[in-house]
Structure formats: C-alpha cells, structure tokens
Write a structure and sequence with these properties.
By secondary structure, this protein is an alpha+beta fold. It has ten helices and 24 strands. The protein folds into three domains: 129 residues, VPA0735-like domain (VPA0735-like fold); 132 residues, Immunoglobulin-like (Sandwich), CATH 2.60.40; 166 residues, Domain of unknown function DUF1214, C-terminal domain (Jelly Rolls, Sandwich), CATH 2.60.120.600. It is globular and about 80 Å long.
Length: 492
C-alpha cells in the first residue's frame, strides 16, 4: 500500500518524532503558509497597506519553503565541499581520504565498509586534467546539482584500468590542447565533486592506488606524488548534513556563487531574489527577510523529512509482504528529469539522505554496481527507537555477488549512529554467527542479546534510527524481487 499525501501541518507536526525541538517552530511556520482570506482587509477590492504586507510575507514564505526543497541537492554538494575545507583544509583539486568511524560519521548515508576519497574542483579559471588511476575503485564525477558527469573506476567506462579526463566549465570552449587519449567532460556547473570508494579491504592499498592520481590545470604538467589529505584529528568535525535555519540559505548562496542560472531553475531564481538569494555570492538579508527565511527553512526541513522518511512516490515498496523500500525511486534518472517534468520530489527525498550518485547505483544489470533497500519504521509504523531491541533474519544466499551489509543511521543527522562501541553495521565480510539454515540474525538494541554478541549493532536510547541494506553486485533474484528480506521486528 502506497503512502498517502499529508498536508503541511501534519508534516510539521510529525517532525517531533525525528526532529526534536524544531517541531514547534516548524508547526508555527506551517501556520503562516495557510492564509485566511477572512483575515485580510480590502478597500473596494484593493488590498489595504496592512493586507499587502501580509500577502507579500505569505508569498515570500511560501516561495522560500519550495525554494528549500528545490535547493536540497546543491546545498548537499556545498556541504560536501565545506566538510573537505573545514576538516582537511582541502583546496580545489586536493584529494581527501575519508576512512574510519569518526571520519565517515560526518557523511550522509555512507558506510564504514569501504574508505572514500573526495576532491572538489573549481573550473572558473579554466579546464582541469584528471589522470585517474588504475585499480579497485568505484565512483563518479558529479556537478553541483548532483548530476554525474561520468562514472570512474571498475563501474565506469574505464573498467578500473584508469583514464584521463579534461573537465571544462560552462563558460569555456572545448580546448584544442587536450592530452592524447583524454575524454572531454563538460560540466554545467563551475564546481564539481569527485566521490569515490576504494574497494580493497586494505587501507594501505587504497592509499597506494589513489596516490597515483594526477590533477593539474590544462597546459601545465602533472608530476610527482599526489598527497592524500586526512581529516584533522583534534576538535569537532564539520558534517556535510544540510545546515539548519538561516545557515541553510547561507550555504545555498555559496553553492550558487559563480554559477549560471539554468533554464529549468529560472522560476526558482526569480522567486528567491526578493529574499536576497542570488547567484552573485552576497547574502545580507534584512530583519524581515531573515525571519521569513529562518521559518521557511524549518518548515522546508520538515517537508524534506516527510519526503524522505514517508515517501508518497509510487512504486517505492520492494515487496508487498514486507516494509522494505527502495532507497532510490525506481523512476529516478541522474539528469533529474522525467517525461512528465522534473523529478522534484524524487531528488528531494534522495538527496536529503545522501550526497553523491552515479550510474552504478541505478544499475539494472545483475552482478554490477550496488542496490539499496531501506526501512524507516517498524511494521507497526513506529519509529525505530534506540531504547528498544529489534531483530531481522537475513536469509541464506543473499543475491549479492560481492557482499551485503546492513547499516544504521541517526534519523536527525542522516549520518552513522553514534555509540561508544563504534559499531554501526554488520556485513557478510564479517565473522557472524550463522544459523543451521544459513540465515543470519542481526540484533539491534541498547544491549547485546545472549549468543548474538557478534551479530549485534548497539543503539542509543533517546535517538531514532533508520537502516540501509546494501547489496554490492545485486543479482537477478533482487531485480525480479523473488528474494524476500523479512521485516525488522521488535524483539521480546
């Protein structure tokens, strides 16, 4: 059964389950979005000055709320850049290795099974050459609206054999002096993110592969060893999660700075301009604008949570006999457009939870790429409570060519759950207790069940969580849905 539509007030109220103290603020903001014509005064049909002020406030607030949802992908990309700059002092073209519980915890929807390598690029000054290495890696180069330019590594056209790319921004012509054999990538944005995984279990081998990467401005010579920056080891790390309140709009302004307005975005650009959101990098809202933007961000976030955790997108249920859903809508396209218009709801739901996509995650070819199932509540519709215990029995012969994993995320941060054990997942790569029939029972709760300690994922009372079940190299029984993954059930 598909999720039914909920109105704005109900969405704002439901944020109390997952959003904590912001619930009341979001509810108050929602009330402003519902004008009562009976409360408006007119003079012979003409709005009075007081009514004009109210109407413009309502108009700007409603536009800002929709602007929040429109901006979710690019604010997520700016969050990735901010994470790299704040935590590793990364400049354009620097590679950053992100590995281990502490580092990966600040990412959205990621896992600790494989390390990540990031880089961000500014194409304003001209084309950039990437000499991508041969080896066991997988990832993509994506523009600032989270649209892939190309997959790289074993899941890309190079098949893990390495490749050379020349990236060109929207304002530059195709260069005549590209290196021999280089593939030209034209980005529609001046900022680009490289988002990759190292697939080898040995971190030293992953470092050795990526250290062979060469990144340099076209016309110069790339030489020497590429350093892999790491996050600072002291102090609090900056998360890539979407900022709250007014900071959301500051991040959006930074994301749009120096970019060109695409045709698909012109209405949103026009609606946000009266609120001080422009493409020129400046952001200094007056008191009225700041109040509207802050309230709109609170309600926009509540709507994004509803879009992600209670999707009304058709076809999200994996099978009718369990409550697992696809993480990525089945009609999603990386261009974010469909035959009936832009995939606005789909991309809001997807990119509120994660940052970074690729062709590989949309695979329909058995044995390649990766697939993701998710659950946000138990079969009774209740949020997964960190104070309670749950179990799921993973059947034998999971249709995953490479491996499978189950990972828990904090509902508020969309990052890894936090616990003193620093255990957030269980996978087929680990030494788990296996039942006589080949199935594996995974336990989730604040205390380890006797006999299942090695299969246990610790949860924290007072925090809600949701779960991703990943299949790396999904096989045909996943695609034809003949494979059944039982629900996560409350444990006695």
């Amino acid at each position: 059964m598909e999720i039914t539509r909920r109105d704005a007030l109900k969405m704002a109220s439901s944020v109390a389950i997952v959003g904590g103290p912001s619930a009341a603020v979001a509810h108050d903001a929602a009330a402003k979005a519902v004008p009562q014509v009976a409360d408006l005064a007119f003079d012979l049909g003409i709005p009075t000055p007081d009514t004009v002020e109210k109407l413009y406030d309502m108009m700007d607030f409603q536009r800002a709320v929709q602007g929040y949802l429109w901006a979710v992908p690019t604010v997520g990309m700016e969050g990735a850049r901010r994470m790299l700059v704040d935590n590793a002092e990364a400049r354009s073209g620097d590679l950053v290795l992100v590995a281990g519980y502490r580092d990966v915890s600040v990412m959205l929807g990621s896992n600790v099974t494989t390390p990540y390598v990031f880089a961000w690029f500014d194409l304003t000054e001209g084309p950039i050459v990437i000499d991508y290495p041969e080896g066991a890696t997988a990832g993509s180069l994506i523009d600032w609206w989270d649209r892939p330019l190309i997959d790289v590594g074993v899941s890309g056209p190079d098949g893990g054999k390495g490749a050379k790319f020349v990236m060109v921004g929207p304002a530059h012509e195709a260069p005549e002096n590209s290196p021999v054999g280089a593939k030209l990538l034209r980005s529609r944005t001046n900022k680009v993110l490289m988002f990759c995984r190292g697939l080898d279990g040995d971190l030293k081998k992953v470092e050795a592969v990526f250290s062979k990467t060469k990144i340099y401005a076209l016309g110069t010579t790339g030489s020497g060893v590429t350093a892999l920056l790491r996050f600072k080891t002291e102090g609090e790390l900056t998360s890539m999660a979407h900022p709250k309140g007014l900071a959301y709009w500051q991040s959006l302004t930074q994301a749009l700075d120096g970019e060109q307005i695409e045709d698909r975005d012109r209405f949103f650009a026009a609606m946000l301009k009266p609120l001080g959101i422009t493409y020129d990098g400046s952001f200094s809202p007056n008191h009225r604008q700041a109040e509207i933007l802050d309230n709109a961000a609170n309600l926009g976030e509540a709507m994004a949570k509803a879009s992600a955790f209670s999707k009304r997108i058709p076809g999200m249920r994996y099978r009718d006999d369990a409550h697992w859903e696809y993480l990525i809508p089945q009609d999603f396209a990386n261009e974010q457009d469909g035959p009936d218009g832009a995939l606005l709801d789909q991309r809001t739901a997807f990119f509120y939870e994660v940052t970074g996509t690729s062709a590989a995650v949309l695979t329909k070819t058995p044995g390649t790429g990766s697939a993701y199932l998710t659950a946000y509540s138990d079969p009774d519709g209740d949020a997964f409570d960190g104070a309670k215990s749950y179990r799921v029995r993973v059947p034998a012969n999971v249709p995953a060519k490479t491996f499978w994993s189950i990972t828990l995320y904090d509902t508020e941060t969309r990052g890894l759950i936090q616990n003193k054990q620093q255990i957030v997942d269980r996978s087929s790569r680990q030494n788990l207790k296996v039942e006589a029939d080949g199935s594996i029972e995974i336990a989730m709760g604040p205390q380890p069940p006797e006999g299942l300690e090695q299969n246990w994922i610790p949860t924290t009372p007072g925090r809600a969580w949701f779960v991703y079940f990943r299949l790396f190299g999904p096989l045909e029984p996943y695609f034809d849905r003949s494979w059944h993954l039982p629900d996560i059930e409350k444990a006695n």
